[in-house]
Amino acid sequence: MDATQAVNPVEYVYLMAGVLFIMGLRYLSSPKTARLGNRISALGMLGAVVGVLTQGIVAWWVIVSGIAIGAVIGVSAARSVKMTAMPQMVAIFNGCGGGAAALVATGELLKQVNAGETLTIDQSLTTVLSAVIGSISFSGSIIAYLKLQEVMPGRPIVYVGQQVVNGLILLTILAAGGYVVSGHELITALYVALGGAFALGIFFTLPIGGADMPVIISLLNSFTGLAAALTGFVLGNNVLIISGALVGASGTLLTVLMSRAMNRSLANVLFGAFGSVHASSAAAKSTGGNVRSVSADDVAVMLAYANQVIVVPGYGMAVSQAQHAVRELEETLEKRGVTVKYAIHPVAGRMPGHMNVLLAEANVPYEALYDMDDINGEFERTDVALVIGANDVTNPAARTDKSSPIYGMPILNVDKAANIVVLKRSMNAGFAGIDNPLYEDPKTVMLFGDAKKSIEGVNTAVKAL
Amino acid sequence: MNERLLAEATVFILAVFVGIEVISKVPTTLHTPLMSATNAIHGIVLVGAILIAGTQDNPLGPVIGVILVILASLNVFGGYTVTERMLEMFKPHANAPKKTEP
């Protein structure tokens, strides 16, 4: 850029927006300032969008109607969604962003081709990458949404030759994309790459099972961030590059964190089709022979006379919407002088931090929620560990049984507590289809039934004591 | 690599480092709002969408143009609203006076 050339004033606005995004994320480092952070970030967004509207926009009806429709649907969906459905909501918004990035890249390439311009390799490479990654994120997020919404089965969907099919699709994308990059401004080739990416997004999300969702949601988030950043390269727009990079970094960090919390590599999560292999054998073994089933009254007595109770929530709590009932039980117990803490496993639920949001919704103060490392030493001093719809994250086989598929996964040391109460719908094996020896532990009792109803029953019984 | 790409790559790489630095300070209890907040931030692609769909020679045509802007604004408006809703639930103080809720 020529030093004497005047800078387009909108560039300053973009720069401010980038700074506001970073500041907004910084304020997310404490729950006290997090809301302010979100608003600072929204202010940056508002500035950037107002700024771009000054840049020779003529098709006002396209912009105004598009924003109006998107705003109405987006805000009403975001307002009405239940907290338990948050993972699929985040997934679908993520997909929208990915799809938009793919379309922006496609549009820019079309524009250049229509104008008869020759693209440099840099330009065509970033354009194709942005379109392909955005497209993968779009279709992958839709499948993740359908699985989480249980329109599609949550279990891994596998078939013979899955990896071969995925490999062939990937080769097609590479060939078509490479053709465009190598200087052929052939729109058809870009469409083939786009279509292939769309298919790949579907096929690589299908075999991901419910318990692995925290990983895949984070990964798709980072994909959309990357696609947005690449779109910034395509359009020569710094605010897109900065924001996309921030999101890409955040998504990648969370992906790594989640994989580590399961002691598995990302590749294993993506291609392992976890659970499907073991499901059949475990189903045959799980006869539920040696477990002790008790009533709500028995559990009430155990809890009411305890000094310390640790609640271990899992996806089952989300499914039965039991968080409010859990909070009420906690209050009843605290009135009796029982200390109640919550132990949160990093991959409990279907997205990072899923349990924290649910319990926050039920007014549980965030100080009462403990991370795995902070609480694991506490179980030895705990009278009752109350496991609500969590399974694999409490499975002691991860520590002891080298043949277990989850061997090595860091778990909550629930089995160290003096007594263990497990709330479960039935004796079916957990998501991963792995037997949990915790249930046959002599210290363990089981309370079968819907988690919410069970907790309410226990609460009534404690009050009656 | 030309000068422009180098400048852009510089911005990108530095932003990645800033992102890692800032985000590694977010406590686990806020990981869902973090995802949702970053999700809203990549709605910035709306800027790109407006640049493509709002110009005279919109190469995608008006119909896809509108769809593009809808997708991007869904991401922005939905993302920020959902984050705000989540964050207003996070409350401190285990021993604060209990709300008179049902």
One letter per element, helices H and strands E, the order of chain B comes to HHHH
> What oligomeric state best describes the polypeptide chains here?
heterodimer
The N- to C-terminal Cα distance of chain B equals 64 Å
Instruction: Kindly provide the radius of gyration of chain A, computed on alpha-carbon positions and rounded to a whole number of angstroms.
Output: 25 Å
Shape of chain B: flat
Structural class of chain A: alpha/beta
Low-confidence stretches of chain A: 275-287
Helix content of chain A: 55-70%
Query: With helices defined by DSSP (H or I, 4 residues minimum), what is the helix count of chain B?
Result: 4
Percentage beta strand of chain A: 5-15%
User: In DSSP terms, counting alpha (H) and pi (I) runs of 4 or more, how many helices of chain A?
Assistant: 18
Biggest interface and residues each: A-B, 117 and 89 residues
β-strand number of chain B = 0
Compute the number of strand runs of chain A. 6
Tell me the helix content of chain B.
55-70%
Strand content of chain B: under 5%
Helices and strands in order, then pairings?
The complex is a heterodimer of chains A (465) and B (102).
Chain A: H1 10-27, H2 34-53, H3 60-80, H4 86-114, H5 121-148, H6 162-181, H7 187-205, H8 213-235, H9 238-261, H10 266-271, H11 276-285, H12 296-304, E1 308-313, H13 315-319, H14 323-335, E2 339-344, H15 354-361, E3 369-371, H16 372-375, E4 384-388, H17 397-400, E5 419-424, E6 444-448, H18 451-464
Parallel strand pairs in A: 1-2, 1-4, 2-3, 4-5, 5-6
Chain B: H1 3-23, H2 31-41, H3 45-53, H4 61-87
